[in-house]
Amino acid sequence: MFAISSRWIVRLAPRSLVCNTGIRIMSSQSPFIRDKAYIGGKWVAATNGGTFEVKNPATGEHLGVVPDMTESDAVFAIKTANEAFQSWKSTLARERTLLLRRLDQLMHEHKDSLAKLISLEMGKPIKEAKGEIMYAASMLEWFAEESRRIYGDVIAAPTKSKRLVVIKQPLGVASLITPWNFPCAMITRKAAAALAAGCTVVVKPSEDTPYSALALAQLTEEAGFPAGVFNVITSSRSNAAALGHVMCTHPMSASISFTGSTEVGKILMREAAEGIKRVALELGGHAPFIVFESADIDAAVVGAMMAKFRNCGQACVGANRFLIHSSIYDKFCSKLADAMKSQLVIGDSMDESVTIGPLINERAVEKVEKHIKDAVDNGASIVVGGDRNSRGNNYINPTLLRDVKPSMLMCQEETFGPVAPLIKFDTEEEAVSIANDTRSGLAGYFYTTNLLQAWRVAEALECGLVGINEGLVSTVESPFQGFKESGIGSEASKYGIEEYLEKKTICFGGL
After folding, report:
1. Does the predicted model carry a pTM greater than 0.90?
2. Does residue 193 fall inside a structural domain?
3. Which residues form the Aldehyde dehydrogenase domain (predicted)?
4. Any catalytic annotation for residue 109?
C-alpha cells in the first residue's frame, strides 16, 4: 500500500512548481516539449530506437521527435501499469483525492504553457486552448471528489442466516486511446476517473498531438503519483493499429477507452471482445442544429457560431447540419453570414484575437473541399467562404452554404471542419425526421420559445446530449455519452467513474 509519507506531504503542499525539472527542451517555443515516452516513472525511448516527427499544422514547423513505439513497448507499459496497480488499488480514497487535487493545481499554475503547447501541436487558437486547459483541469477537481464517493450497498437478504453487501473495486489497468482535437481534455476526462477509481492507466495519444500527453505525465510526476500509475506511449500512424491491438487484447489490460472515429471504434470493440474487456467508446457525431419558427433568431445565431466554429469545426459535438424553418430561412442565413464575416478571424493561433486556426492536416482540408464541391455540384450555393485561405495548405475559410439537401454528402458524413450547411424544413416532424436520419447520435441542438415543443423535440432526438437554446452543452457535471454508433459508456459526471469500477457481491452466511 502507498502510504502518505512526509515526502508526499511536502510535494502535495501548495508551492510554486520548479518549472520543468528534468525536461529535455527540444524547442524554445515550449518548455514542455520532450523526446521520450513515460513508462514506470521513467522517460524512455522506443526499444528499437524509432522516432517520428511532430509538426505545427499552422506553419509546418518542426517541433521535435518522439518515440515511435512498438508492440513490445506497449506490452511493457501494460505490465508496468499492472505491477503498480497491485499497490495503487489499495490506496485510501483520500490519498488519491490529494494527488488529483495537486495535479489540478499544477495545471492551473502552468495553464499558459500548456495552452501554448496545444496551439503549437494542433493549431487551436490560444484563447480556446486556455479554455481547454481549464476544462481538462476541472475533470481532475471533479474526480478528486468522486474518489471519496464510491459507495456500495447493503441488500435485504432472502433468509435470516445471510447478509448481502455490494462493494465496488477498481478494474485494473485502463488503456486509454485519445484524439488530437482536444489533446489534453480528452486525456483527463478518462484518466481522472480511472485514477480516482484506483486504476492505473496507459495513455496512447494521437500521433498528431503527443506533447500534451507527455506534459501531463511530467505533471503527474511533479504531483507525486507513484511510478507506473500514469504511463504514456507514443507512436506514428503506421504503428498505431499495432499498439491499439495490444491495448485491447493483452490479458493485463482490463479496459479500453477510446475517443475517435466510429470506424476505428468498431475495430477496437471487436478486438476487445476477444478478452471480454470493459469498453467505453466516444465516437463520431453528426449533430443537427434546428431553428424553429418561434426561435429568437439572434440567440440562435450566437449558438450556431459556438456550436459550429469552436475548434474550427473539429469537435465531435459540433453542429454538422443546420435545419432552418422555411419562414425564417432567409433571415437566419443573412444574420449568420454577417456574424461569420464580422466575428471569425483567421490567423496565427497565438494571437488572442484569432478565432479560426488551421485544420489538423491537409487530408482534413481535402475532405472539407470534397464536401463543399459535392454540395455545389448538386445545387447548393456558397454564401460565405468555400475555398482555402492563403495562410497555408491547412487553412480553409469558414463556409456557409444554402439550398443544401439531406441527400448531399456533407449531410451523410461528418465534415469535421468550418462548414455550415443550411437545410430548409416546414414542419416539426420533418425536422426531427431529418435530424434522426443518421447512424450517429452524439449531440443535437435546437432553438424554440415554445415550451411544449421543447419537451417534445428533446425527447424525440436520438442523441446523448441535447442543447435547447444553447450551443455549448458539455460540462464536467453532466454525463457525456452517445446513442447508436456514437459510442457506449459515459464520461464526466458522477457516472464517469463507474466505467472503471467492478461491482462485487459479498454474501455472509451462517449467521
Report:
1. yes
2. yes
3. 43-506
4. no
